[in-house]
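From the shared-data thread, chain only:
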Amino acid sequence: MADVIKTLKRSEMDPKDTWDFTDLYANDEAWEQELSTIDTDKNAMAAFCGKLGDSAQTLLDYLTKMEQTDCKAMLLSQYCMRKSDIDTRDSKYQAMVGRFMTAITALGAACSFETPEIMAIPDETLDGFYAECSGLERYRRYLTNIRRRRAHTLSPAEEK
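Structure, as tokens:
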């Protein structure tokens, strides 16, 4: 008779044979704490609405905050989605994915002003911003990619 191979549950496996998530977050509680900061980030970024063309420094401040928030969101997503991949029957991690998606959707809606406002900055003004604030060079490609889609972008209200 053939040997029967038992499939181990994740909890029965040697930890060295499982994914190590501690590089992302020490535990689920640390992830929850970080997720709770997304709402604060959302509010901080929404405060830039109507101001991106005001000055080079304002634009740089917004882009820097956006980049930091994007990096945070990437870590948050990787943690909850990989945890849910371990066992798709585990409702705890499915719920975490759901909460993450809700937070990111709200963040996206709050920042929907970005593309139309960046497109509305006149070329001469943006050139002046680059000359005035060397930190914007880091984001030149990002800004150029947004602005090249002008003909295919809706109004601010429609984008929202």
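The chain has a mean pLDDT of 91.
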